Amino acid sequence: MNSKIAELPVEIVMIEDDEGHARLIEKNIRRAGVNNPIRPFTSGTEAVNYLFGADGSGLVNKGKPLLILLDLNLPDMTGVEILGRVKTNEHLKRIPVVVLTTTDDAVEIQRCYDLGCNVYITKPVNYDNFAHAIRQLGLFFSVIQVPAPE
What we know:
The chain is built from six helices and five strands. It is α/β, with parallel strands linked by helices.
């Protein structure tokens, strides 16, 4: 079973409430040559339910190759809350998280890095910078280590 899990493509979990931004992000990801499956969520609640599963433990996604693209400004909860929950969960804490948001406040950026985000990108996204960041994320996709189930 372990070898099958490791062969699965990394799924991009995109948490973005603005559908225009979501379409643009997906378009730019595709233009950067990243063809991984994208699972979009427009609310934090839906995304948290998906990531943590019905029992709320996160075990459902343990060891799955995931990458989270996270907007901080969501209608029902903050992206910072989601980031904190993911990074303190024993089953989800190794999932790379890319914060993609309009907030360029230095304190907020530092808070996200302190909580464990891997990359912080501000919107509106400069296409060249975004494409570069996505290509660098491609390194995550190619070298991501999926821990064996314990």
